[in-house]
């Protein structure tokens, strides 16, 4: 009997919720210092629909190889469908098909293969999920932070201003409980609307927002089922942010962040917009928006020591008696500096020998120096 | 270098004009450096210039508590802000104590079961191999002689206990010092209780329906999902791996971390020791696990001695500030 799965054509709109296993239920005997917080708006992957379906998903017959279909014509086909009404995000493998036994085949022309030569290798299921048709990019994990961390200092500044304004709006409207909640990630228009609000800071650092506060506060409420917008779409480009920065005054940076709830809200929102996490030990130091900016706008740490010297210690490189090289200077480099390397290469070519890489391991270098082969 | 020397000289000369100055003024105008280094270009310590009256009189009072953000595990969304005692999470670094603790743990983890046979334990007859004289060969005793191949070992290893001792209060201090070190470096991520790798609903359904019977298929999914979660939060291989600490075994999380050892490890609270706290790039720890860990390791903070009939309580910690 034929057991070949037919994959149903998915409509491509992923809808998924979190499966919280039962084992995370806490023991009732232990005191609960941290009440469990249910996040309704959590979404693990983007719910933006792909414009076009992958070719494999559009063609439902693809999962059934034609050869097999011809070979077992007329046999019963078992199809399975887990949730006929729901679209599928992850595509499981088809059920294994069982080949007919050689002694039951009635075709006289059929001769069983005696060697494996010429048979197609189909592999196993070890890397099934590496195929983008089985695990499309839209099903990838999406957390609270955006996929790409915002590194442009101007964009970070715009995000901090936006976060501060939004937090102050919520506070001014008396919705203190909203300060710690989950805010929706709106589109670009909302960003411009928030930045357009006036922000006045007095000498004590007390900030007041003026403008249409109500619409901004309504926009913050995250709606269930709303498509998650990555902050790449919600934030302006660097050039636009720069233009905004040049025409706005910087007095808002003196706004006080001493109130814990406001600071928490601002830092959480900045994390959502830019992907920057403010470490706990810095929290106590941050007293104003300027302090927060100083924490966030630090350039990323250089990955190598040579990169650090090149970027931060230019004065060392410019010293007259110091030569700087990002990598170890080898025999080859010295030959190059003297103009001898071309000649060596030419001689190698003449003798039909391999020139080899410039940098060789130290052990081999030592061999060269000692005159070994 | 030369410019610094000239400046130092002029400052020194200026400070010598004592006649018109009061003593207090003199001290504030002492030259910043009297010597200059022969070896390096590093700035020399300024002995007097940074000393102001305020810093001389105001003692340093560290904050009694430090803020801790509690995150939702999988999404990394901040949930609330808490205040933990500085005596738990903001201790000064003590490299020596950490070293002692790690060595102490290493000693006590040694199995110490190496065993070799002495000449009296090697199997065989103790007959003299051949006579003492007359063969022209060197004199020998029995076959088990340590000089012979297959003979016994003279001073070989015998099973023993390599364990060493450490004062409990010092060990507990080391434990909290390790946590403080992580906190100070921003490498302590405290998450909500019940930390577990939540799989997408659809995959859970498929597993329940028996569509994913192949273990390689399930493992492949968990591994890729875990890699995506960790990379998304900058906790993965490219960012120095992470240690996940929970109060109890969590199936998905522990299985997944076993499948991606390059991305870190997951440990039950009973399995954790000081070395584990210092090993990977960061600790991602359940709130309850952190509280339990501190509760078990604060013997130096709460005395057993009753004072006025009351046992001194440990410092208050884990107070919620913002929720």
UniProtKB/TrEMBL annotation, chain A:
Lineage top rank: taxon: Eukaryota
Keyword entries, A-Z: Mitochondrion, Ribonucleoprotein, Ribosomal protein
Pfam families: Ribosomal_L50 (PF10501)
Record-level GO cellular component terms: mitochondrion; ribonucleoprotein complex; ribosome
Region (Disordered): 354-373
Biased composition (Basic and acidic residues): 362-373
Cellular location(s): Mitochondrion
Metal-binding found in the keyword field: no
Similarity field: Belongs to the mitochondrion-specific ribosomal protein mL50 family.
Descriptive protein name: Large ribosomal subunit protein mL50
Organism: Apiospora kogelbergensis
TrEMBL record, chain B:
Basic residues composition bias: residue spans: 125-136
Any one annotated GO CC term: ribosome
Keywords from the named record: Ribonucleoprotein, Ribosomal protein
GO MF assignments: structural constituent of ribosome
Coiled-coil parts of chain: none
GO biological processes: translation
Pfam families given in the database record: Ribosomal_L4 (PF00573)
Record-linked SUPFAM superfamilies: Ribosomal protein L4 (SSF52166)
Region (Disordered): 112-159
Ribonucleoprotein as UniProt keyword: yes
Family membership: Belongs to the universal ribosomal protein uL4 family.
Protein name: Large ribosomal subunit protein uL4m
Source organism: Apiospora kogelbergensis
């Amino acid at each position: 009997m034929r057991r070949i799965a037919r994959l149903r054509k998915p409509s491509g709109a992923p809808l998924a919720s979190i499966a919280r296993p039962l084992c995370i239920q806490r023991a009732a005997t232990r005191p609960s210092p941290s009440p469990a917080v249910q996040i309704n708006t959590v979404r693990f992957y983007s719910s933006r629909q792909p414009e076009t379906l992958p070719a494999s998903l559009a063609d439902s017959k693809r999962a059934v190889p034609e050869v097999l279909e011809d070979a077992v014509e007329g046999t019963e086909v078992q199809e399975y469908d887990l949730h006929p009404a729901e679209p599928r995000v992850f595509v499981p493998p088809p059920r294994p098909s069982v080949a007919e036994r050689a002694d039951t085949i009635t075709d006289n022309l059929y001769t069983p293969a005696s060697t494996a030569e010429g048979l197609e290798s189909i592999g196993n299921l070890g890397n099934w999920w590496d195929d983008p048709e089985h695990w499309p990019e839209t099903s990838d994990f999406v957390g609270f932070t955006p996929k790409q961390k915002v590194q442009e200092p101007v964009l970070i500044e715009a995000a901090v201003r936006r976060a501060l304004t939004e937090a102050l709006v919520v506070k001014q409207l008396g919705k203190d409980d909203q300060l710690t909640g989950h805010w929706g990630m709106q589109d670009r228009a909302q960003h411009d609307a928030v930045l357009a609000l006036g922000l006045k800071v007095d000498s004590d650092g007390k900030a007041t927002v003026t403008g249409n506060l109500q619409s901004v506060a309504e926009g913050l409420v995250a709606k269930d089922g709303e498509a998650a917008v990555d902050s790449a779409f919600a934030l302006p480009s660097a050039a636009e942010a720069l233009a905004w920065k040049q025409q706005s005054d910087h007095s808002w940076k003196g706004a006080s962040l001493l109130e814990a709830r406001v600071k928490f809200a601002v830092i959480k929102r900045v994390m959502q917009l830019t992907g920057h996490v403010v470490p706990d030990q810095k929290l106590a130091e941050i007293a104003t928006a300027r302090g927060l900016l100083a924490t966030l706008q630090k350039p990323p740490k250089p990955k190598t020591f040579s990169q650090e010297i090149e970027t931060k210690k230019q004065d060392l490189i410019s010293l007259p008696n110091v030569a700087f090289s990002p990598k170890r200077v080898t025999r080859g480099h010295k030959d190059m500096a003297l103009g001898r390397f071309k000649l060596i290469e030419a001689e190698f070519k003449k003798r039909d020998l391999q020139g080899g890489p410039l940098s060789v391991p130290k052990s081999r270098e030592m061999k060269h120096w000692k005159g070994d082969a | 270098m030369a410019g610094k020397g000239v400046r130092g000289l002029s400052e020194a000369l200026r400070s010598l004009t004592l006649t018109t100055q009061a003593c207090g003024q003199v001290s504030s105008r002492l030259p910043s450096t009297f010597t200059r280094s022969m070896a390096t270009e590093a700035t020399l310590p300024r002995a007097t210039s940074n000393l102001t009256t305020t810093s001389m009189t105001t003692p340093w009072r560290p904050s009694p508590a430090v803020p801790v953000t509690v995150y939702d595990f999988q999404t990394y969304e901040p949930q609330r802000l808490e205040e933990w005692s500085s005596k738990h999470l903001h201790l000064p670094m003590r490299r020596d104590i950490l070293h002692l603790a790690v060595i102490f743990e290493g000693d006590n983890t040694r199995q110490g079961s190496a065993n070799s046979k002495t000449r009296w334990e090697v199997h065989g007859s103790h007959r003299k191999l051949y006579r003492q004289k007359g063969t022209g060969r060197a004199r020998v005793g029995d076959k088990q002689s340590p000089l012979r191949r297959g003979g016994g070992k003279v001073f070989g290893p015998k099973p023993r206990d390599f364990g060493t001792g450490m004062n409990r209060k010092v060990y507990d201090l080391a434990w909290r010092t390790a946590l403080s070190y992580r906190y100070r470096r921003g490498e302590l991520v405290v998450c909500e209780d019940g930390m577990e790798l939540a799989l997408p609903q659809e995959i859970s359904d498929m597993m329940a329906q028996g569509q994913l019977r192949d273990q390689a298929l399930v493992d492949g999914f968990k591994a890729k999902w875990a890699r995506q979660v960790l990379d998304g939060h900058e906790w993965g291989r490219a960012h120095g791996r992470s240690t996940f600490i929970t109060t109890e075994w969590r199936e998905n999380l522990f299985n997944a971390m076993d499948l991606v050892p390059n991305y870190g490890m997951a440990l039950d609270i009973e399995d954790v020791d000081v070395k584990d706290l210092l090993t990977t790039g960061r600790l991602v720890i359940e709130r309850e696990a952190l509280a339990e860990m501190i509760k078990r390791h604060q013997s130096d903070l709460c005395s057993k001695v009753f004072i006025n009939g009351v046992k001194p309580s440990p410092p208050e910690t884990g107070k919620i500030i913002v929720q």
